[in-house]
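Reopening this one. Same input as before:
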Amino acid sequence: MDEQGANTTPRPASRRMAFAAQELRLISALVLLLGLGLFLALPFVLSIGSVVFLPLVTAVVLTVILSPLADRLAGWGLPNVLASLVALATFFAIVLLALALILQPAVALFDSLPEMTQRVGQRFAELRDEFAWLALANDRLAELTGGTQGNQVVLASPSVLQQLAFATPSVLLEVLLTFLMTFFMIEARVRLRRHLLFDRASFGTSIKAARVMREVQDRVAAYILTVTWINAGVGVIVALGAWALGVEAPVMWGGLAALLNFVPYIGPLAMTLLLALFGIGTAETAILGIVPAAAYLALHTVESNVVTPSILGARFTMNPVMILIALSYFSWIWGVFGALLSVPILLMLTAFFDHVGRPNLIGFIFGEPLFATNLMALGVEGEGQDAQQG
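Same output, byte for byte:
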């Protein structure tokens, strides 16, 4: 009886492990709820404080991208301050060159915008006449259902020039803050690495922190550099194709294609629509006007499904659903700039969670640990080692 009672009595160690497992699951649930609340509340905070947070986030992304170039220049013997300044000046020169190639022809085409808009209206009027029976059917359906058309109230809004006049001072201030913060962050990268390596209590923690920082920097910089070369090739092909098809300002269309290709899915779709509208508005027939858009769509299909996956490989493969979530999330917060920053931010978070551990959200619902690392198993191993040493 005593032996059976001793066998059925729970051991203190198993009780402690069960209590620790329940405590860990409770803490994980609280962390998950806090993370969800932060995810939902963060857009409102970042949107309201965009004057502060947008330059800061942009500066962090630019620092991650330009730090390898500054390291290369410093390896060639340049002082750290001069290497940081040259890296930032190189990026600034590339941005100015891209804007000059795109904006200068766009200003020249702005004078022909009313004529092109009128021609697009004529094309759609022709299509409307061909499908006039649909409008008659719609009117007859509205009469049968008793639907009435209400009066529309059109509110006057500021013109484009007025909006640009109001937005220019704040935009210049944000650009200046962004480049200043980027310069100081790049210049302080050496001190940050030294701080991560030598100011930690554990040597293993120092190595892991330095490894995470290096992995984030290398992955984002390599991705941006590779995608930049791919998009530059797309821009050159689009420019040559536009020149061959007789489209006005082929350099501008090539620059737009390269720039919009940085925004996955949304950018190529916008480029296709722009080419379609411009072609319909300038060509003699609607069929000829759709040719540039169809050619670009075929080029993008080959680039996105064959060229880019073969060059980037599995290391930079990301879930399309996560890309769309990041696009919608940061576009909601910061508009166009948020769309451009969404993929680099997603890459940084992915590289970070690859080292720290990605949360197992679906498995957590069914009783599995929140993170892949089983902390309870580590605790069992620790107790076993302590018992062996004792």
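So the earlier flakiness isn't reproducible anymore. For the record, The radius of gyration is 29 Å.
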